[in-house]
């Protein structure tokens, strides 16, 4: 009786250690995936900074041209409204581009999560015994 209890305790300890090893492996995989996602988001953020500064510069130029047009009393200032309209169009296009780039981090996270899940499932399929797959094949043959 004591030997049976001792064997059961050894089996429980072995199963616990295997589960702990699996959890540590999964945690390590998750950690590396999070690091990759944060690196991609950092790259995206660094790509957005020049666009933001360009949009600010265009907004400031737009405001100065508006002020110059409102202060200009001479009829020779017909070029200024044209330049102002061109700047307005460029600013609108830039704002649309920034809006589309703001959605990019969400897409990167979605793709990174899908890739991480796929990599994790591949790793798990390598680690898990193949007996379960064989049993499933046997059941499908019977049906």
- From the N-terminal CA to the C-terminal CA, the straight-line distance is 43 Å
How many alpha or pi helices?
4
Q: Residue share in helices?
A: over 70%
Helix/strand order:
HHHH
Count of β-strands: 0
Shape: rod-shaped
Which band does the percent of strand residues land in?
under 5%
Radius of gyration: 31 Å
Q: What would you call the structural class?
A: mainly alpha
Describe the structure.
The structure is a single chain. The protein starts with a helix and ends with a helix. It is 91% helix and 0% strand. With 143 residues, it is mostly helical. It has helices at 2-71, 79-102, 104-127, 131-142.
Summarize the structure.
By secondary structure, the chain is an all-alpha fold. The chain has helices spanning 2-71, 79-102, 104-127, 131-142.
Set out the fold topology:
Blueprint: H1 2-71, H2 79-102, H3 104-127, H4 131-142
Helix pairs in contact: 1-2, 1-3
